[in-house]
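HUMAN: Spend a minute on the protein record below and explain its fold to me.
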Amino acid sequence: MRLAVASACSWIALGAAHAQEAQQAPAATAPEVSATEAEAKVDNVVTVSGSRISARGFTQPTPTTTLSADDLAKTAKPNLFNAIAELPALQGSTGRTTSTNSTSSGVQGLSSLSLRGLGPIRTLTLLDGQRVVGANVTGVTDVSQFPQLLVKRVDVVTGGASASYGSDAIGGVVNFITDKKFEGFKFNVEGGQTTYHDDKNGTLQAAWGKAFMDDRLHVTASVEYGREKGIDSPGFGEVGPNGRTWYKNPAYQIRPLSATTDGKPQYTVIEHAQQYQYAKYGLITSGPLQGTAFGLNGQPYQFNYGSNGVPTGTGAVTGCVNPFCVGGDLSGSVGAGTNLAMDLTRQVAYTRVGFDINPDHEIYMTANFGKVKSEFSPNPGAAKNANLTIQCDNPYLPSSIAAACASNNITSFQYGTANAIFPENINVHPTRKMQRLVLGADGRFPVFGKEWSYDAYVERGVNFTDIIVHDITLNARYNAAIDAVRLADGSIVCRSTVARANGCVPLNIIGNVAVDPAAWAYIAPQNGPQQHTRQQQDVGSFNLSGEAFETWAGPIAVATGAEWRRESYRVSGDPYGNGVTADTPNNASYPADPLLNATVGNNWYAGNYHNAAGTYNVREAYLELNVPVLKSASWGEANINLADRQTKYSTSGHVESWKLGANWKTGIDGLRLRAVTSKDVRAPNLSELYAAQVVVNNVVQYQGNTVTIQQRTVGNTKLRPEIARNNIFGIVLDRPSWAPGFSASVDYFDIKVNGVISALTAQQEVDLCVAGNQEICGAMSLNNPVATNNYVTVQAFNLASLHSEGYDLEAAYRMNLKNWNLPGRLTFRGLVTRNIHFLTDSGVVGTIPSEGAGANLGATPRWKGLLSQSWDTDKYSLTLSERWISSGVYSNEFIECQTNCPVSTVQHPTIYNNHMKGAFYVDLGGTWKIGDKATAFFKIDNIANVDPAPAPQANLSFGINPTLYDVIGRVYRVGLRYNF
């Protein structure tokens, strides 16, 4: 018998061929076996990550993409995460270019993989088939903490696998498989930068392995260091970083619903959007002095609104739609001030020691240390959207403004500023340190003439996450410092005597003036927001597999096992963010201040971290069977795969997951059919159950105004597991005799997830409250006179549902050029995912399902593809690859119209133009072997330097979609690999 894994031709730029499994054929006609196949093949047994079964002749029905070490090396990425995330089925993954506009989310710098756009929390990421402690309280792992040089292949299971692997595998599984018996020494060194001379990066990796004691003791070790320096913020204005000219302040201009009876659209996508509720150095935003801005040394001038806008004195501006005009004074724009990519440093050490007790039994230990440190700036300054009150007796006001106050009989006015005078931008520093130890045993033994294999292990994994924020202000101190008054002796002080008694130093925010260092130290103390998290995972697992007995059609294979797991975490925030409690006593670093809320906390501009703790445990057992049902010369071969898993969570009780699949190698040359249906689950994670209250700044549209709010997110211990139904049907053409170098497949997938744990956005809650939902109105307060007291509470419930439907297309053709007396071989490959539907239903009365497929502001375009053309010889190789994202819309809920538009609704707003461009990227890479052991390589990504499509927002916070588009630009990398 022979094994033929269809992933023999797998490849990173394509995304690789779906792993096709063991098939029987005469040994004399066996085709060439790739390195990946050879590694997967042991004594005629193959293990494919789509199943727990390890047996001869097993053909598993779940599509699986396999990437070999050679595939991964060709991408020349500084992080394997970036290579895997390019696969079309991977949609919505997070990396160092995402969440760069966030201070408090906790996922900044986290490299986590997402299948089908269902999110990292619904994609199970494993290391050698074992769970890895999460790097975030959501439970998702950080691929950057994995040992990468020793990875010999990565299996991507593009279908539900909860029955085989447990919770979180709704979207599928990504399994990193290391070379456990590596011998020798190898290293990889590479470096690169963008065409803009930024994001300079370097990687240094080394691995060593050796066998001792007559090949009974095997030791492997690796160390890795990588640095990607990121792309810094250019600061304020409509200026992209380091010469990037594509940033043009895209935004939605949104008219009130009540105004849409005139036949004109409610939404218009604009460029050069200008906020009219603040200016770079300050702007009076209402009253008789509205439109007065301040420049150098506080000199007043008439603000240029753009759109020929004229202030009305009421806060509105004629010719503009709240909160934007078009053009005008763009110097205070903050959208371009977000880092495009974080500065990220990886340090990883890994070792595995295995000892063969005898040829059939091994005990082993693995130890993994991973440290990932990020740094970025979410935005410049700290914009205040017309929510400040300046008294007319403020001594920093020019005399002309004080006189204008008196002549207009006013004592104060509303004011907005981008706070561009701040000496430093907010900067966030997340650091994650993983310590993971595994003790295990594996082996094989005979039972009634059949060979069975087992593996058992216990694991302790701990991740320490520290998020520290610098150069950020305390709201109450800022408000006290800007409210200045002149005393009889001529000195300028803070108006509040309480603030003065506690160290308040007045701050001048009227115009472009230097900030007093003492005032800066008062409003932005050196000890900024801090969050310290300890997350622990303990696992005990035992798995057994083998062949029970023979039938006329072949052996019945069995896999069974049990697992116990405990997940726990404890997080603590600083006293100013959390509030002074018994768990977080006040100390000298955060002295008491009566201006600050000592009970609730939430005193920082952003990054208000709170204390929390939680734990849960899981007990589960599973059984999987592979039953041959057909073996015929004319009808072919077929098998059925069944699995059932019983799971009990300490928090939510019992849940069952199962799988039923079939695979038929038909009698037609090369044609195979496969199908699988499964029930999959995802249990609520620690964050959803026990999340500390997280408070972030946000803005919502309320009663025609942009309102600055605190968004408060809390956990819910009453959550239940999500339940998914996953259906897949595929047709595979595997190297038929009439085209031995050709393979192709089509797989249709349909995933429905009910009881989805999710929360509405703050804006959705506000809209529902306005529509009359009193229950949701109780979760917010938007009418407080002090803007920092406005809030919206966001909490997760099992209300929503998801429906992902589409199909994967794959084709590969390989030809040997020696038939034409030419050197080497050519390989043509392509993998494409088509999203038919990605429906999200919030489950709340008054809302409708939202269609995400083709909405390019999200993560699920209609089409996502990878193509590759490779020429390989024994000495050289060249690979040209293409990445494609289809054009789409901003939202499928929009109704596009220019005239005679229907009246806009919350569910179906009208928009002038609902088209968002796609993208087509071309990459080129090559290698050159230097002698027998060294290989030099180069890679150019995004050769044409294609710009990202503008991504309009309601609040101008970002303006791009890094989840879907390349926001970095052309990148050059070169390196050297050496194998001793």
